[in-house]
Amino acid sequence: MPKIQTATDRAVPAKRSTSGTFARIARYAFVRGGTLLITVVIGVYLAILIANGGGYVDQMRIGQVREKISLQIAGNEALRDMTMQERREYEQRLVDLEIQRLGLDQPFMVRSFRYLWNGLTLNLGSAEYMISDSGSRQVRYILGERLGPTLLLMATGQLLLFFSSVFFALFLSRRYGTVLDRIVVAMAPTSAAPAWFYGIFLILIFAALLGWLPFGGMVDAPPPQNPWLRALSVLKHMVLPVASIVISSIFYNSYYWRTFFLIYSSEDYVDMAKAKGLPSGAIERRYVLRPTLPTIVTSFALTLIGLWTGAIVLETVFGWPGIGRVTQTAINLYDTPVIVGTVVIYAYLLGLTVFLLDIVYAIVDPRVKLGGGDRRS
Amino acid sequence: MNKIRNFFEQLRSYPSAFAGLAVIVFMVCMAIYAIIAIPYNEAVRLWRGGDNVWLETPRNASPAWTNYFRKDKLPETIVLKTTEDPSLKTVVPLGGGVSVNDMVFTFDYHYDGFPSELSMFFTSTFKSARPNVSIKWITPDGREIRLTDMSIRNSESYRISQDNSVSRRVRGLAPEVGLFADPNDPSKVNKGTYKVVVEGLVFEEGSTLDGSLVVYGQVHGMAGTDHRRRDIGVALLWGTPVALSFGLLAAVGSSLTTMLLAAAAVWFGGWVDNVIRRINEIVMILPTLPILIMVGLFYSRSIWAILGVVILLGIFGSGILTYRSMFLQVKESGYIDAARAYGASSGRIILRYMIPKVIPVLIPQFVAQVPNYVFLEATLAVLGLGDPVLPTWGKLLNDAYTNGALFTGHYYWVLEPAVLLVITGLGFAMLGFALDRIFNPRLRGL
């Protein structure tokens, strides 16, 4: 979901770094990466605290242990002769042992750090109900095998969105005031609706009414044997979700970026370049695009973060077998370990996104100082 | 006063702002109407209802107005009740407590489509001997089709459309089709006046027998019905106050606190500033939606609990940095120094001098944020984490989706809540965009 940002200036006077660009970026990346890692650790810990708030998850796990053991005992022929009293004591002993084995008897503060370590090392435990396509109950595999489709869909959608928005915005800033420009300005508020919402309409039109494209899924059933045909089939299934990602944000991004281009094209140095007789392409690249790129990257970062979480519903709507779809299934099945696992994965994905964008930012904005994200004051 | 007039002068040059404002006013009126017409408890009862509340509405019926756009008119529901129209029933005592209770349900059927279901409901009071009924169906061309004989308990329902023996008597067609079909062309409706004759016998003094006939249609009301026979209109209407209050409260709550925090961070500086900025960095990494999902699963699905968490998570984010940079400029202003010189307290300076200065920037942001939150509620509902009792637009979408409305062609079920969401979202977004351009001198004219 794009958030409205007001056009605040970000002119920060700074000394040019004397060392080379590469060294500057490497140092910057190292510091930024470190800060972000700490942030991710705190984020995951918070997620664990929320997930276990009030000891609810512990209660649930102890309940499961008890149920499992009492079922074992009831089904065990050898224990039939025991009296009620003996059997109850035996059951209690087994439950206590199991609780000790799982470490559930330790105070929560101790356990929370073990959970944290497990979470950070992606040792996410085993699911309660869900099974991965390869037959494993490990949350790591359940989520791991779905990471690919999510990355495929989101990366395609986001890259397409970014480049089409930039070029469209440049195109519009050249044609400022035309009918097309005004249409885009008028259409900008439509970006208030998230991608999945446009997905519903696209499915309605192109799948239900026209029947041109599939309702959802990732590949035809049964999947074609020929790898080329299979790729084509995946491509066909990607059209609608990618289209809804692009449609949901392109008008706002184009409008917002075009406004920035316009503001920067009225700078004196652009007039100077025009007076020198530079071709308009060169003016755009060197004098308009270059100074606005940091702003554009920042605004795109916000779109990206919105899209990541938006993916959960987008994948649900399109039946795309990614992390989002797993999350939705886990919600319906009430599979706690999987849900906590997705939160951890999402924290990593967001951290990674912010990190990559910071690097890109450092490349496009030579003013960035080595100070760990402090770009303003 | 002059300032306000000036503002409206400027607003005049943005027709989209007026369109947005009109939409918002309309939505607010609809919300107020919803709360007055269907009180909260009634709305919850209707939506949880189940079969007892929605006994006489068809399943998955399209809105009634769709008939205007089609050549072959689909039937609406016909309900005939002896309790409401006593002339349908004639009671003839035979002596000894026994009496004949005959009921004749007569109705005209001129639609081009077949009904979706047929049912009869009976109620009776008796001490020990159950009343008996025998039911006949008389078509417009005078054919008589025996339906069934049965004895009636205190309350009895006879689902004609599920009676296989009736189906056998009408050449193996489904009863609701076979009973209405033209005998020469079973795909056509035999239009005319139908009669359902119930010959009832009660065996005790003071024992009563009442019945009703429901011919379920294929269209219903303004909005149609869902898979549980509920009138979608109830949820559409009640979704309005829920969506508006969720969106507005979340936007007000988070943007005001954001602003206060940013002002405090700038004013106090030092470690306060640092702490707030570090927290901000962490919260930006926190995946909002998965956390809301966890809260919804482990704590409470109530929309108000979710609202609280949304505000808490919404406080931090990019907004706080924007405000911070604005406050940094404000702090250097001369009048802040003047306030400090006369000994104003920190609270006074923040609340009376700093915040009013950035309010113009806040308003467009705040208005433009409302749709984000309206859609967030819908997003959660689509994931199956909607409020457990309240009908909302998102829950309608979720119901429609889980029941495959797009596959089965019940498009109205998806489109109605979606269109309302779009209209609400666009209304706020258009107003917010226009306000942003009015209050932001740099954007003016661009």
- Following the backbone from N to C, one meets helices and strands of chain B in this order, namely HHHEEEEEEEHHEEHHHHHHHHHH
Strand percent estimate of chain B: 15-25%
Major sheet attributes of chain B = 5 strands, antiparallel
Low-confidence stretches of chain B: none
Number of strands of chain A: 0
User: Which percent bin holds the helix content of chain B?
Assistant: 40-55%
Would you count the extended β strands of chain B for me?
9
Q: How many helices of chain B does DSSP assign?
A: 15
* Residue share in β-strands of chain A: under 5%
Assigned CATH superfamily of the largest domain in chain B = MetI-like
Rg of chain A (CA only):
27 Å
N- and C-termini, Cα separation of chain B: 28 Å
Total domain units of chain B: 2
How would you describe the oligomerization state of the chains in this entry?
Answer: heterodimer
* CATH-derived topology of the largest domain in chain B: MetI-like fold
Shape of chain B: elongated
Task: Show unreliable segments of chain A.
Answer: 1-18, 370-377
* Mean of all residue-level pLDDT scores of chain A: 79
Question: What's the alpha carbon Rg of chain B, rounded to whole Å?
Answer: 31 Å
